[in-house]
Amino acid sequence: MVDLRELRHLDLRENALTELPERLVGLPRLRQFDVRSNRLTRLPDWVVEMTALEKLDVRWNACEPSPSLLTELERRGCVVLL
């Protein structure tokens, strides 16, 4: 597989995803992550390990991130669009 550690923007919107693959946690420089308009029912806790994340868009999914995940992301200045 291609080395994606330098990836900064990932757009996975409108792909009918029901879950996020855990291998995405290995994207240390990811700043913008767009997963809107999928079929997600939960947002995995490992999203908090994306320490460079500045914007997370989860609109138009059937999920509500956990309060602790939201608190941590917002504490770091990450904009979370629900």
UniProtKB/TrEMBL annotation:
SUPFAM superfamilies: L domain-like (SSF52058). It comes from the Bacteria. SMART domains: LRR_TYP (SM00369). PROSITE patterns: LRR (PS51450). The keyword Repeat applies. Coiled coil: none annotated. One of its GO terms (cellular component) is cytoplasm. Keywords: Leucine-rich repeat, Repeat. This is Leucine-rich repeat domain-containing protein. The lineage of its organism: Bacteria, Bacillati, Actinomycetota, Actinomycetes, Kitasatosporales.
